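Much of our argument rests on the idea that a fold can be written as discrete symbols. In the encoding step, the backbone of a single protein was reduced to a row of integers, each denoting a local shape. We regard such an encoding as a compact summary of how the chain folds. The record that follows shows the chain in one-letter code together with its fold in token form:
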Amino acid sequence: MHQSGLILYAERRASTSNDRCSVSAMQNANAAKPVALRLDELIGAFLIFITGTGLSIFLFFVELVSELLMKKARNSASKKLKSEDLFEQSGNLSA
């Protein structure tokens, strides 16, 4: 076994996996670390966020304007009905 180099091979193989100061072990350890995201990788997320925020603000103002228009329409309709009722009542009194 000594002459074939199996014992030496086993010792080297066992010692390099536990050697924390080995250069190759450090390169493998650095490769396993998570990489920070860059701005160009996040552009899609920012575009979706900005589009959603802009759309929600736009729709909020559309709802505000439509509510104001509906209130105006209701007020003018109720005034019209009141004036027609007054006209009918005045017509009934003179008859």
Residues 1-33 form one domain.
